[in-house]
UniProtKB/TrEMBL annotation, chain C:
Membrane topology: Multi-pass membrane protein
GO biological process terms, semicolon-separated: amino acid transport
Keywords, sorted A to Z: Amino-acid transport, Cell membrane, Membrane, Transmembrane, Transmembrane helix, Transport
Subcellular location: Cell membrane
Protein name according to UniProt: Branched-chain amino acid ABC transporter permease
A matching Pfam family: BPD_transp_2
GO molecular function: transmembrane transporter activity
Origin superkingdom: Bacteria
Membrane-crossing residue ranges in chain numbering: 7-31, 51-74, 94-112, 132-158, 179-206, 264-284
GO annotation, cellular component aspect: plasma membrane
Broad class of where this protein is predominantly found: membrane
Record CDD domains: TM_PBP1_LivH_like (cd06582)
Similarity field: Belongs to the binding-protein-dependent transport system permease family. LivHM subfamily.
Amino acid sequence: MMTLLQVKDMQTFIEQYHILQGVTMDVTPGEITVLFGRNGAGKTTTLRSIMGLQPASKGSIHWKGESIERLATYQIARKGIGYVPEDQSMFYDLTVGETMRIAMRRQDDRTMERQEWILNVFPDLRTFWNRKTGLLSGGQKQMMAIARAYVNDNDLLLIDEPSKGLAPIMVEKLMQSIEMMKAKTTVLLVEQNFFMAQTIGDRYYMMDEGKIVHQGSMQELRNNGEIRRKYLGIA
Amino acid sequence: MVLIGLPFVTDSRSFLMMLTQIFIFAVFAMSYDILLGYTGIVSFGHCMFFGVGAYSVGVMMNEKGAAIGSLLLAILIGMVLSALLSYIVGMLSLRLKSHFYAMLTLAFSGLLLVLAEKWRSVTHGNDGFTFQVPELIKDRTVLYFIALVIMVLVYLGLRRFIHTPVGRVLQAVRENEQRTESLGFEIVHYKVLASIVAGITASLSGSLYVLTLRFVNTTVFSMDMTLNALLMTIIGGVGTLIGAIIGASIIEFAHHWLTELAKFHPIFERWIIFFGLLYILVVLLFPAGIVGTLRSKWHKYRKARPQDTDPSGVSTESESQGKKVNVS
Amino acid sequence: MDGVINLLVNGLATGMLVFLLAVGLTLIFGLMSVLNFGHGGLFAWGAYGGVWLYGVTGSFVAALIGAVVIGMALGWMMERWVIRPVYGNHVQQILVTLGVMLVLSEMLKVVWSPNPLKADVPPLLSGSWEIGSVILIKYRLFVIVIGLLVFLAVQLVLKKTKIGLIVRAGVMNKEMVQALGIHIRTIFTLVFMVGAGLAALGGALLAPYSGVIFSEMGMQFAILAFIVVVIGGMGSIQGSMLAAILVGLSGSFLAYYLPELSLAGNMLLMVIVLLIKPSGLFGAKG
């Protein structure tokens, strides 16, 4: 099967710190790939480097066979990659509706259809359409961030720890919605919460100290308590 | 050496005057370098200290008569007022982003300019006034030597200052403000201290300046004075002190020559444009200025021969000029 | 009583002119965190350009439009050649924009004249209305109306248009805007040009108001504009408007009752704001 996103030996420095020390991973279309790892393992930096927000100094990133590691963030986004950052990056003073409006790159039927679909998945956003995003609850902000990335006809969504700081019931809801999106788009999900992510993930990569240390199908990780204990501190 | 012998060789009074002016502006530019080059603070109102020093001397000579004692007192008063002024402006704005200090100094110097224009009973407004100076200083050669000696003393004094523990903290602030703060230094106090040292030194140069003219008017508070300091420091090279002296020489020489050239074509009356453009290019392309760039080249050359050790320790500062961290 | 009304009109008119200068400063600062010390130079170019074009064309409308075009063109060049290389380095930005100020004001002397120029009020707007014993000078009212219209237009654009929403989103989170596929540099250039154009409009409107223009006027007004953005809060349009009116009014009343203190009054206002709320009346962060 053809890979959608192919990252090879990606290395990233932040100031003098060598954060990513060679990350290699593939994302297959139609799947949910989960990137696991402890705090500080380099998961967020991996997503930021793919997006060009924290450009990699070495290695290559291929998108549908085309090299994108030299492109600017906005060009990478226009190729069809949506980004849901860890802190949700709300435009706190804009309403839900206004945020959706600037998120749309086109206003064609297809985009409107996608907006309808995601608003049905997250009806809260419809309810609070005219509320400033800064005033939404934590879970609603996360929905907003996902909807903002989803509304364009993106082929891949990079989602950074959507479960962070949310109540378990909300996390479950979010995971279900991400699974629903799978039919429409590919997802690269960063998570620490193994129990939630394992229910929807197809494949996994395990990160530690800026490197990929394990990879395989989610089933393999379910069966391998040792890896989970070693890198996530859970059985 | 040449500079000491010079007055005995040349008869040209105007040449001697020009050199005297250069020494005085070198002091002014060095005071600015303490802010910009060593602490990374941008002031757009440095003329206010220059002007305070200038008017202190002018007003005192005018009211109390031309005696050495009152002259020294006047210079001292100028320094104290400048210290106070820089303390107030510094405390108001130095804990905020760097833009605030630049704006506030600009506004305060504007206020002092208006004050000097309006307080006619003391300043005679725009027209200014002439005054007598003590007998001893009337001699141009004496004035030349005084200015030369003061420039050398200020250079040595400031050089010492930047090598004191306080001076080293200031340079650390310039290089990386957050890191210095996280090391437990109360940055605002150090910045205010730097602005006070700079203010006092600038006040001294203002006092000397009006002594050579025996005249003072509101131009000492004008934006042009601040621009002088900026151009001299930037073109000479920030963070080197010597650069400030060289910058002062370049600007003053060029000013004289280009003004001469104005006889041939009026465009030379606008000599400041050339310097403005040069200044922009230097800020964009050689943030370290002439001396700074030469020094880092020299440093690289020295590095290539590792058996040489650097006893002065001065050159380490210049190297990092090219990648000045933003101070916000 | 009529004296008070006159001072009020005066103060509001000056406030509007300062607002036109400050709105560009604050927009550019909010979005790009660049404080443009050359902004006053664009204001002065607007004034000279306006006076010159009015002389050439005889049409005041053409003069205003021309001034805005000149301002935008200068803003475009400035952003592209001078500001762009130093994004992110505040010290260099501050220094380089002041250099631009210097060159812009000196160039005025080369292009036009080192001497002050006279500026006329267009016939349609000269004179005054008398209502009872109150004399309302037409041109000043005109300036107030234009200032309010610009304020409303800027608000409308920022609140209702997609480009305005993008600008506001950019102020809040630059990275995320880019991650949505928006080229923020283009937005920067656009905002810079609009800010420059508004400054030039302010200059062109000031010229007939004060009757005479000179090359240092840019710096003089820039100082007022800086006081305004500090009082109003950097990055806030409403704050700029409120502070500009405050500064205009306090200037006009003090100039009448205590002429020595008019600049000092505004400075005092700024110092008080800095002491109590360093982020300004409407500022979110310092």
